[in-house]
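Board notes, transcribed. Complex of a protein with NAP.
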Amino acid sequence: MRYTLVTGACGGLGSAFTKIFCEDNTPLFLTGRSKDKLASVKERLGERGSSVETFPCDLRDEKSRAAFFAYADDKQISFDRLVYVAGVDTQMAFEEYDEQRIVTQTRVNFEGAVSFIKSFLERSPLDGTTEILCIGSVTAILPEPYFALYAATKKALEYFCMALRTELKGKAKVTVVLPGGMPTREDIKENIKAHGGYGAVSAMDPEKVAAKALKAVKKNKRRVIIGFWNKLTNFGTHLIPMSWRIHFAAKVWKNTRKDFYAQ
Ligand SMILES: NC(=O)c1ccc[n+]([C@@H]2O[C@H](COP(=O)([O-])OP(=O)(O)OC[C@H]3O[C@@H](n4cnc5c(N)ncnc54)[C@H](OP(=O)(O)O)[C@@H]3O)[C@@H](O)[C@H]2O)c1
């Protein structure tokens, strides 16, 4: 039996993925930071008949990542799908940042993903059936003033996935999806509201995003922007000079903020 490994499994989008996997009884190995949160997710999914393993992991920490895979090895667990959902978002002026916000976003959004992909591949069949899905962000289509570090980490993840896909051709499929706003946490809901009409039309429920992302994996897509308005924005940004694009992005984010660490 091979497991689908989901990071960020207790979060808004992660829960949407586990719900879908649970419906077709996919064996799941779920991770997040909190043992208690994972235990309650396991209980809930177990009641529906899913085979669920959990183990906490702080994705910022290489020792914690090693402990996670040591546990998997101990239990002789192997995988055939990785869904890297975990991510940390801080949207504010860079001058307001502290060290924790720099380190956490960089490590969880990029270093943790790269490290998990490596360890995951070592425990997966490289016969073309293995799937890797990473969650990027539509913010990565531009340099985003006031969301600069987050957008840059998501761009790094996107480029890494696209390059790796070619290296792994015939061995494993790699897809990166770029969602726009999803009303998951309260601060994200406020942030979407503060962006007015555009926020309202471009946001999408995490359940829909998860379903579309899995469809993209099934079709073995390289990179998929989720949602009509986000696709249109991406197209539109290519028609204007970079200096204008960055200017508009600054206007969008300058007067709003959200912060994973304020939760
Ligand atoms: N919501 C949006 O508007 C939006 C838009 C575009 C892209 N995204 C991306 O979509 C993904 C899911 O976002 P969401 O809206 O579902 O946010 P969320 O509810 O805050 O979920 C984030 C997840 O990341 C995990 N995480 C954070 N720090 C971690 C760490 N140090 N170690 C391990 N896990 C850690 C959290 O795990 P625990 O709290 O369980 O420990 C949580 O499950 C993220 O990658 C995000 O960047 C979100």
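The chain has one domain: 2-262. The CA atoms of residues 191 and 256 lie 6 Å apart.
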